[in-house]
């Protein structure tokens, strides 16, 4: 089973300004309502602990492997619940230049695994709402620094 969610927001700032906030991993506890903490500086091919908090208050610590850290373009990681194939998620942030010096920020996740049919509400409602909250907080943080 597979499922994908994606959210997008326009940020009134250039890509470099968005990237600067997005990759200041130690500062997430100050502004992010959903990604509360990184256990270090992510590096491609390595695992880094990530503390997530859903809008309903549920907290989970993941230890995903980082797949991509492409400057001014994309951050991507993959996590799993217990073992491969149960409930896996490939999470991504993409920043792209948009009109008038703005940045289009996209956040999404590709879910797979046998638990997908049982977790539709969590994916389609809770996780998506968490993405929307994160996107709005990122926009406020970036635009507030200009």
From TrEMBL:
<dbReference type="InterPro" id="IPR019587">
    <property type="entry name" value="Polyketide_cyclase/dehydratase"/>
</dbReference>
<dbReference type="Pfam" id="PF10604">
    <property type="entry name" value="Polyketide_cyc2"/>
</dbReference>
<dbReference type="InterPro" id="IPR023393">
    <property type="entry name" value="START-like_dom_sf"/>
</dbReference>
<protein>
    <recommendedName>
        <fullName>Polyketide cyclase/dehydrase/lipid transport protein</fullName>
    </recommendedName>
</protein>
């Amino acid at each position: 089973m597979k499922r994908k969610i994606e959210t997008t927001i326009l940020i009134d700032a250039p890509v470099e300004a968005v990237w600067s906030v997005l990759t200041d991993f130690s500062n997430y506890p100050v502004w992010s309502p959903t990604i509360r903490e990184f256990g270090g500086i992510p590096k491609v091919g390595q695992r880094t602990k990530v503390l997530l908090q859903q809008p309903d208050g549920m907290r989970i610590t993941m230890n995903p492997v980082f797949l991509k850290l492409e400057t001014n373009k994309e951050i991507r990681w993959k996590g799993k619940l217990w073992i491969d194939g149960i409930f896996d998620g490939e999470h991504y942030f993409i920043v792209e230049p948009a009109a008038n010096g703005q940045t289009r920020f996209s956040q999404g996740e590709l879910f797979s695994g046998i638990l997908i049919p049982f977790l539709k509400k969590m994916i389609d409602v809770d996780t998506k709402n968490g993405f929307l909250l994160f996107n709005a907080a990122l926009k406020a943080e970036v635009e507030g620094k200009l």
